[in-house]
Amino acid sequence: MTPRRTLPLLLSSLLLAGAALSGSGSGAAAEPAAGPAVRPLGAVVPAPASVTPGGEPYTLGRGTAVRVDSADRESRAIGRYLAGLLRPATGYPLPVVDDDAARGGILLRLDPRATALGDEGYELRSGPGGVTLTAHAPAGLFRGVQTLRQQLPAAVERRTVQSGPWRIAGGTVTDTPRFAYRGAMLDVSRHFFTVDQVKRYIDQLALYKINKLHLHLSDDQGWRIAIDSWPRLAAHGGSTQVGGGPGGFYSKDDYREIVRYAASRYQEVVPEIDMPGHTNAALASYAELNCDGVARPLYTGTEVGFSSLCVPKEVTYDFVDDVVRELAALTPGRYLHIGGDEAHSTSHADYAAFMDRVQPVVAKYGKTVIGWHQLTGARPAPGALAQYWGLDRTSAAEKERVAAAGRAGTGIVLSPADRAYLDMKYTKDTPLGLSWAGYVEVRRSYDWDPATLLPGLPETAIAGVEAPLWTETLSESAHLDRMAFPRLPGIAELGWSPAATHDWESYRLRLAAQGPRLSALGVDFHRSPQVPWE
Ligand code: ACM
Description:
Strand order of the largest sheet: 10-11-14-15-16-17-18-19
Bound molecules: acetamide
CATH superfamily of the largest domain: Glycosidases
C-alpha cells in the first residue's frame, strides 16, 4: 500500500476540511449544528497509511446499529466491544445485529478477497449513510475500530452520557501496519501489578494498535508466575518486590485470564523469564540452583548484574526445561523471551554455552526465542528475535554486532533505551522514573526512524518496535499512566505508520488531540510543553 499523502499535506487539507465541515451544518438535518467540529479524517494516532477525505460525515444516532456477520464469532465479539465503548457516552442503545437485519449504521465486514489488507489492515469508509469497516481478518476489524473511535469526539470515552453530536468525517481510510511486531513491555517483577491493572494497560495499548504484550515475569526482585514443578519460585520468590512490599504472583488461571483478555484486544502475550542473570528470586527459592548450593536472600533493591544461574550444573537445565515447558503450555502465542541481558556475573563462555542449551528447549516446546540483544554475542537460534535496547552512545562495535545478526537472519525488535524506554524521566524534574539512559521528552521518544537507527541493519531485518516499561520506581497504575503517556502512542506510531507520515510538527498536533481522550479515559498523562494540548 502506498501512502497517498504525507502528513504535512494531510495537515493542511485537514484544517481546510475541518473548517468546511464545521461551517457546513454537515447536512445531517436532525442533528444540532452546535458541538465540536468533526475531527478531520485521519487525524488519529497512529497515522493511517492512506487517507482520502471527502463527502459529508456520518452522524451516530439513537437508531444506529452495529452490523456484523453474526455467523462469525469474532466479528460479533468485536461488534459488542465497539458498542460497549460507545454506549455509555452516547446513551444510544447501539444494538449489535446481523448485517442483513438493518441498513446503514456501522457495518463490520470480513472480506476474504481483501488480501491486500493482510492480517491487521482495514478500510474505513464513512459517509452520511453509514460507516463500513472492511478487513481481511478479525484483527483488522479491531484495529479499524480504534480508528473509528478516535474519529469521534474525545468525550465518547467517558462512561456517563455526554452531549454529541457524534460525527465521523466522510471519506476513506485504507490502513496497514509498517511492522508486524508492535510491542509494549510491562515489568511486573520489580513491582507486582494485579490482573486488573494489567488489563487496564492492555486496554490503553489497544487504542494505539499495539499487538504484543511482553510481560517481564521474573527478575532479581520477584518471580511472578506459578510453576507447579518448582512451587517455591512463586511462593517464596514472588513474596516481595522493590522496596520490600508484599509482591505477588499470577496463578496459572490468572495468567490465562491475562492471555484471554489480551487476545480479546488482539494482543499476543510474550512471556519473559530472564536468564541466566536477573535470577536472584529463583536463586533465593532453591538452594540447588546456586553453584555453592546456598540459597540467596530475597532482594528488594535496584542493583543489576549480581545474580547468575549456575551454568555448569545439570539441575539448571532441569529447571529451565520445567519452567519453559509449563510456561509454553500456558502461552498460545508464538514467542518465549529468555532475557539474556546484563549477565555480568556469568562469564562470556558460560553465557554462550547456556544459550546454546536453552534455546533448543524453547524450540522443543514449540516457541520462538526472543532475547535481549546481548544474545547476538552468543549464537542466536535460527528464527530467533533479538531486542535491541542500546543508546545513541552504544559503541559502534556493539551496534554492528546487532546489525550483522540482523543481516544473518535474526529479526530485530527495536527498543532503544534513550527513546523507547517509558520509565526514563522526561526531564530532570520528573518525580518518577530513572535517568541512566538520559532524559526522554516526547519529541525525542517519537522523532527517530526504525530504518536508520542501526547503521547497516536492513529494514527487512526489523521485526518491529517495542516500548518497555520498567517498574523499579513505579508501583501503581497512575504511575504507569504518567510514564507511558504520552510516549507510548509515539512508539506505537513508529511501529504502525509508514515512514512517509513521520513528521514531528504534524504528529504533535495529532497527539495534542489525544490529551482530552486520555483525560476522558482517566489517564493522568505528562503534559509535555512540547505538545500544544487541546
Ligand atoms: C534491560 O534494560 N536490561 C534490557
